[in-house]
Predict the 3D structure of the following.
Amino acid sequence: MNEIIKAMESRRSIRQFKAKMPRKEDLQQIVEAGLYAANGMGKQAVITLVITNKELRDKLAKVNAQIAGWEDDFDPFYGAPAVLIVLADKAHFTRIYDGSLVMGNMMLAAHSLGLGSIWIHRAKEEFETNEWKKLLADLGIQGNWEGIGHCAVGYAEGETPQAAKRKDGRVFWVE
């Protein structure tokens, strides 16, 4: 079987991570894979924030949990030490699709490097607040950005979950 298809079929969302930080080189490769995702009209209107600072990561987790209505001590990133936040330029009508493709590429890249990942939502709500818009401004990022998702990345704790059986009746051929 083709290695890319094999990776697509074997990648799973991980919900328990070790505290050990992935190598910076691996995180760079994951982000690079995201940069090569297909995008509408070749605009490349998606950016990625790489959060490895524990204090900022924990603050982000707390805000994310509050948005979801969870207890403050719940970690929506499941202990992953690195969080890659995908944002897309609000001026581009393909932003959600483009950002989603970036997320998919990054999760497959993480898997190919022996790392686990999971897509966590609520980036949209976070980056609608002044606090997180200020973070972008402090980083010198200009423009109007919409949060697409968080790709939480790290070393999986425990076994990789098994794939659920694929539902029947989801493919229709028109020949």
Notes: Strands lie at 46-51, 82-89, 116-120, 145-154. Residues 100 and 148 are 7 Å apart (CA to CA).
